[in-house]
């Protein structure tokens, strides 16, 4: 009886060891196999998915044309080269970059059925997705400050707000957004990932990627 119990205990230990080896991340060998992630996608492969895809593309084109028109209207007209319109044109540029970060890849995955995304491309997606919202929020704060000075201190407006000040506010928005994004992106892309690299999202969303990290 004792011998039988020892045999069963040894079998359980061997099963646990095999399971642990299977679940652990062979990071040394994985880079030789593949570094791509797989995106689950946004649209189901059905008529409903096609309708949703067409709607998203139409909205994307409307936003794209709207922001491009705004930039092209402000740039050539010297009367619109005031700080307020300059900041608005930069906000439109950020909106263009933001929607262009995700929608083209989602559309490409749905049309061509290729849901894989390279490690570098995924890093760029995550970096831009984290950078642009923060940069936009800071730019909107700068625009609010611009209106505050124009309304409350109209006689001092040209002293406090100038083209140089606007450029500095825009640069600071980009820098602050990039610094915050670099910290998150560097962390996410330095943790080990297991062989199963299917991201349960339609782009490289950081919380969804963290669920794929290896713990072993």
From TrEMBL:
For this protein, the record's Gene3D superfamilies field holds:
Rhodopsin 7-helix transmembrane proteins (1.20.1070.10)
Span of domain G-protein coupled receptors family 1 profile: 66-216
One Pfam entry name: 7tm_1
Recorded GO MF terms: G protein-coupled receptor activity; olfactory receptor activity
Question: The organism sits in which domain of life?
Answer: Eukaryota
Q: Where are the transmembrane segments?
A: 37-64, 124-145
Keywords noted in UniProt = Cell membrane, G-protein coupled receptor, Membrane, Olfaction, Receptor, Sensory transduction, Transducer, Transmembrane, Transmembrane helix
Q: Please name the PROSITE patterns in this protein's record.
A: G_PROTEIN_RECEP_F1_1, G_PROTEIN_RECEP_F1_2
The UniProt similarity line reads: Belongs to the G-protein coupled receptor 1 family.
Biological function: Putative odorant or sperm cell receptor.
PANTHER family, sorted: OLFACTORY RECEPTOR
This protein is called: Olfactory receptor
């Amino acid at each position: 009886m004792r011998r039988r119990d020892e045999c069963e205990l040894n079998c359980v230990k061997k099963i646990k060891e095999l399971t642990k080896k299977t679940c652990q991340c062979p990071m040394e060998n994985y880079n030789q196999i593949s570094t791509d992630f797989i995106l689950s996608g946004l649209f189901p492969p059905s008529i409903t998915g096609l309708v949703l895809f067409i709607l998203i593309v139409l909205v994307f084109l409307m936003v794209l044309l709207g922001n491009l028109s705004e930039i092209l209207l402000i740039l050539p007209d010297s009367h619109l080269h005031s700080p307020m319109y300059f900041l608005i044109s930069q906000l439109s540029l950020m909106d263009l970059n933001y929607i262009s970060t995700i929608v083209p890849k989602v559309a490409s995955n749905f049309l061509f059925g290729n849901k894989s995304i390279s490690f570098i491309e995924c890093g760029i997606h995550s970096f831009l997705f984290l950078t642009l919202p923060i940069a936009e929020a800071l730019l909107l704060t700068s625009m609010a400050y611009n209106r505050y000075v124009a309304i409350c201190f109209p006689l001092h407006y040209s002293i406090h707000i100038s083209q140089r000040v606007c450029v500095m506010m825009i640069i600071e928005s980009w820098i602050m957004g990039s610094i915050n994004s670099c910290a998150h992106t560097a962390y996410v892309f330095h943790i080990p990932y297991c062989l199963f690299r299917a991201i349960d999202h339609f782009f490289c969303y950081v919380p969804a990627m963290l669920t794929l990290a290896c713990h072993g």
